[in-house]
Sequence to fold (687 residues):
Amino acid sequence: MDKYYFQQKAEEITVKMTTEEQAEQLKYDAPANEKAGLKAYNWWSEALHGVARAGSATMFPQAIGLAAMFDDKFLEEVAGVISTEARAMYNAYSSHEDRDIYKGLTLWSPNINIFRDPRWGRGQETYGEDPFLTGKLGSAFVRGLQGNGEFLKTAACAKHFAVHSGPENVRHEFDAVASPKDMEETYLPAFRELIEDAGVEGVMGAYNRVNGEPSCASKFLMGKLKEWNFDGYFVSDCWAIRDFHTSHKVTSTAPESAAMALKAGCDINCGNTYLHILEALEEGLIEPEDIKKACVHAMRTRARLGMFEESTEFDSIPYDVVGCKEHKKVALECSRRSMVLLKNNGILPLDKSKLKSIAVIGPNADSREALEGNYCGRADEYITFLEGIRNAFDGRIFYSEGSALFKDRVMNLAVADDRIAEAIIAAENADVVVLCVGLNATLEGEEGDTGNEFCSGDKPDLRLPESQRKLVKAVLGTGKPVIIVDASGSAMNLEVESDALLHVWYPGQFGGTALADILFGTVSPSGKLPVTFYEDASKLPEFTDYSMKNRTYRYAEGNVLYPFGYGLTYSKTKVSDLSYADGNATVTVENTGDFDIEEVVQFYIKDTSPDAVPNHSLSGFSRVSLKKGEKKTVSVKIEERSFTAVHEDGTRSIDGKEFTLYAGISQPDELSRKLTGTETVSVKINK
Fold:
C-alpha cells in the first residue's frame, strides 16, 4: 500500500466523528463507533517474551535472556513467532467479539531502556546495558513483530521514552537528570535506531520527568521524535499523565494534564486522564484540531494493521499455531542459547556414566515462577529444572527445596531454616549437587506488579536473600561437588566458590530441558552477559544518579565481578587475522577444543579522543556455530557512527585520528582475558 493510503484512510474515518467522539478514541480502551465503522479496541497488549496476559501462548526466556543470545537474526525469528501467535489469538478472540485488554495487535514491546543499574527490578525486561546491542536487538524484535507485508502484522512499541531505569518506588515523582552527552551517548541511540531503521509504529513515554519535563509531554523528547521523522502513535505509560498533577506537580488539574500531554504529542492515554479532554476544550486549553490530530494518528495505526479492510493476509492464521510444536522448538533453542556459564572447574559437562545420584536442591529447583520472569504469558507446558534433570538422568535424584525464596522458613509452623537439614542430607547422599537459587518476579520487577518484598521490585543489593545464603553455605559445607544454577534477571554476586556457576536468567517454559542439555553436554553453553556483573552495589553511584560515570562496561572503574560480553563454552576458541577495509571487519575464528559449540565473536572500538567513552564500545557481533576443529571467517559491518565521540553539548563527530578495533570472544579487558584464557586481536584504523 502507498503510505498515503493509510493517512487518507485515517483522516476519512476521523472526520466521520464529532470532536467528542474523536476524544473517546484517545483512551486505551476505545469504544465502538458505528457511524465511523469502528469496533471497540483496547490498545494495551504485551509481548515482551511471548504474548502476555492474554491466555495460553509460547513463553520464551525473559528479554534479558534473549539479549544474552547476542543473536539479532534469531531474535527477529522469535518476534515473528510472537506476532504470528498474537494475530492468531486476535483472529480467534475477535470472532467471539472478545476485544478485551491484552487481546489486541498493538504490542507494547520491546523495552529498550538502558539497564544502567543492577538494582533496577525492571532491568530484566531490557536488552541490557549497551546502547549498540540494545539498538540492534530492539530493531530485530520490531522487524519480527511488524513483518514486511502490505499491512503491519502487529504494531511494536519502543518504551519507555526515555531515560527510565529506576528506582521504582519514586518513579511517579522522580526527575531523571541526564546531561546532553549522556542523552546522546547512552539513553537515546536505541530509540533513534528503532524509529529510523526499523520503523517502529509506537513509542511509549515514561513515568518520570526528564530534566524537569514529564516524559509524556517533554518538548525535548517530542522534538527528537520529530527530528527522527517518527510517524507512528505515541502512548503514555499507564496512568503517567495523572502524575502530572498528583506527583510531579507540573499542572494543577486533570484537564490541565490532559491538555499538556495532548498538545505535546501524546496520542493515546493509557489511563483515564483523557476523560478530561473535553473539559480542557471547554476551558480553552486545547483546540478541536489537537484532538483531531491525535485521533488521525490512532486511526492511521489501526489502518496500517488492516483493521478497516475487508480482509488481510493475516486473517487466515489459525488458532492452532499458538503453542504449536514448531514454536516450542524455537523457545527451547532460545533457552539453550541464553544460559551463561560463568565458572567451570572442569566438572561440566557431567558424565552420566560416572554418576549414580544427583541432589537437586533449592527454592528455584521445581519452580515455574523461576522460568517465567515478569510480563509473561501462561504456557501450556513447563519443564522446571528438577523435571529437566529427571527427564535426562536415569539414576537416583534426591530433591530438597532447601529454603523458601526469601522467608526464613518453608512451613509457617516450623522453626527457622526448616529445610536446611534435608538439603544437607540430600547432598550427602548424592554424587553431585545442582543447587538452584536466585529470585523471581515477586522479588524483582515492576512497582505494583511484584510482591514488593524489598524495594518496590528493585533489589537492595546483589546478594541472594538471607534464607538462600544460609542454604548455599550449608550445602557447600558438605564438601560435595556443587554446580550452582542462578535464575534471576539481573547481576548477582553469590559471594561463594562453587565448582561451576550457571546464570540462566528466567529461561522460559523449557528452562529445565535446556539446563539438562547443558549440564549433561547435549549442547554447550553459549550465552554472553548483556550486563556487567559487579562485585558490590554499594560501590556504584547512587541509584538515583543518572550520570553514566562509573556505570556499565564503557565507563566502569573497577568493581567488576564478571564483565559484559563474558560467557564460557565447553571448548576453546582462537580468534586471528583481523582486518578492516571499506567499513567491514573480518576475522578468523577457530574451535581448537574437542566440543561442538556456538560462539559469539565480538568487535569493540577504542577511541582515545578527549570526549570518547573512557573504555571501549561494542561495534559489532556475530554468533557462529563451530564444530570441533572447525575454522570460519566472520565479517561484520562497522558503522561509521561507531567512530564518533559525543561532546558535552550532545553533538557527535569523528574526532579521533587513530582507532583500535578489537575482535574476540569477549571484551578486550584484562579480566575477560583472565576468565576466558583467550586473547583478543586488534588492528589500528586511521580516519
Remarks:
- The CA atoms of residues 511 and 615 lie 35 Å apart.
- The chain has three domains: 3-321, 337-562, 573-686.
- The domain at 337-562 is CATH 3.40.50.1700 (Rossmann fold).
- The first strand starts at residue 29 and ends at 30.
